[in-house]
Amino acid sequence: MGTAEDYEEVLKGKYPAKAHAKKVADWIIANGGDKTGTIYLEAQKSRLLEDNDEAAPFRQRRFFYYLSGCNLSDSYLTYDIGSEKLTLFIPPIEPDEVIWSGLPMTVEEAKQKYDVDEVKTTVEVNSHLASTSTSAQTTIFAIPEQVSDDITFLSYKQKNFDLLKSAIETCRVTKSDYEVALLRKANVISTAGHINVMKAAPKAKNETELEAVFIKSCLERNAKNQSYHSIVATGENGATLHYTPNNAPIENQNLLLLDAGCEWENYCADITRTFPLKGEFTDESLGIYKIVQEMQKQTIAVLKEGVLWDGVHELAHKVLIDGLLKLGILKGSADEILKARTSVAFMPHGLGHYLGMDTHDTGGNANYQDTDSMFKYLRVRGNLPARSVITVEPGCYFCRFIIEPYLKDPKQAKYIDKDVLDRYWSVGGVRIEDNILITKDGHENLTPTPKEIDEVLKIVKSG
Fold first, then answer.
1. Are the beta carbons of 8 and 185 closer than 8 angstroms?
2. Where would I find the Aminopeptidase P N-terminal domain in this sequence (predicted)?
3. CATH number 3.20.20.220 given to 177-462
């Protein structure tokens, strides 16, 4: 699966589109699909902004990219399952467009760049579809709502719009060596951004300044897209799980929670670090940081192929309860507190999610209808396969909106010491998040971002 040192060597090769196509086809066949059928996918269309002649931001369809490695808009692909032939269709050269935008990629260039068997232009899509279904018994597999009006499947006996999306979503959970290398690179670039924010924090006057530092660090390293909208939250803003204004003035807050990651070739880093803006924890913030650090250490330590993620999430809550009991925020029996789900007031989200081309990647089988508050927002349920990549992001938050209803509920309030709790509102929230590759015998942390207390404080003070 490569190492931190050789990911650049792996990335000198081609994105493994054909291996992905075969993996998807095998899943389709295993789930009752036609082994002589054809897979059909379309790229994202180029669009203009509403009421404007400016191009809208482009984000490639992940289903298309998984079987092509191609970031061009207005493209198509087919994969003939029987012959294992992958064909890519790219836009032809339009002379009028060349004047404004320069020469687009040619068919010859695409053949060199992408891991496909044949490259044609998009004007040939319908004729190609007619020629690949010479047998009257074949099936076309496509995704609903992702088939253009001018595309015809008349020559196919059957159209199956049910299997392909599920096939790709399932196959994406386990990563190839190339995908792991993409994730490593996204993590390395994002780490530079996190370190630069740590250094800039002591002199920053506003959260927005620090968001700019992170984005600048990514852009300088040619990572032009963010995996998601960064969370740059000082003080009590860190208690909002998906805080996005990132515009509060920095005054007397102690902590900054930075949840930020870039994309590299559509693959996402998702990293959170929490640290004191001036390089010194308060007693309260240090106590919470150490609890969250211990939550992460213990949960990462048990990760390996086949581990039940639900159980790892529960372990995080057990460590959280023990820590909050020692600080005096919680009181009573640890077992009773776990059973009462009181700790959900302090960590209402799940321990993590799959990671890949999407920050919250496919295949997690979440159950948001679960009546158990501890598991309701857990984005991954079940056993983790080898080669999956999952975030481990325990946290502890002091959100009045969430905790105050617990204080008003006698069944919950008896486990919370309000007088001790009142000293912790200013902490806001602490979260530490790494991206973990699951292996047969254990795991590998893809995130090199500093998080040990002494190292983080040293970096902040160096700024």
1. yes
2. 15-149
3. no
What's at 198, amino acid-wise? M
Q: What are phi and psi of 7, to 5 degrees?
A: -65, -35
Crossing angle for the helix pair 309-327 and 283-301, to the nearest 10 degrees: 150
- Residue 381, judged by CB atoms within 10 A of its CB (0-12, 13-18, 19+), counts as middle
pLDDT in tens, 16-58: 999 999 999 999 999 999 999 999 999 999 999 999 999 999 9
Label residue 96 by pLDDT band (50, 70, 90): confident
pLDDT digits (tens, 9 = 90+) for 187-242: 999 999 999 999 999 999 999 999 999 999 999 999 999 999 999 999 999 999 99
Average pLDDT over residues 436-452: 98
Say whether pTM exceeds 0.70.
yes
102-106, 122-126, 417-421, 454-458 — which is least confidently predicted?
102-106
CA gap 177, 2 in Å, rounded: 7
Please report where in the chains the tokens 């809208």 appear, as a residue: 56
Buried b (16+ CB within 10 A) or exposed e, 319-351: bbbbbbbebebbeeeeeebbebebbbbbbbbbb
Question: Which pLDDT score is estimated for 136?
Answer: 62
Task: Give the residue from 288, 284, 275 showing the smallest Cα distance to 210.
Answer: 275
Residues of the chain with CATH 3.40.350.10: 17-172
Query: Are 295 and 356 a contacting pair, CB within 8 Å?
Result: no
**DSSP characters for 186-228?**
HHHHHHHHHHHHHHHGGG-SBHHHHHHHHHHHHHHTT---BSS
Kindly report the average pLDDT of the chain as a whole number. 96
Question: Where in the chain are all domains bearing CATH 3.90.230.10?
Answer: 177-462
Q: Which CATH superfamily is domain 17-172 in?
A: Creatinase/prolidase N-terminal domain (3.40.350.10)
Could you tell me which of 169, 227, 179, 168 has the C-alpha nearest to residue 362? 169
Q: What whole-number distance in Å separates Cα of residue 130 and Cα of residue 80?
A: 12
> How far is CA 158 from each of CA 127, 210, 220, rounded to the nearest angstrom?
18, 54, 50
Residue 135: what pLDDT?
57
Q: In sequence order, which residues have a C-beta less than 8 Å from that of residue 109 and are 6 or more positions away?
A: none
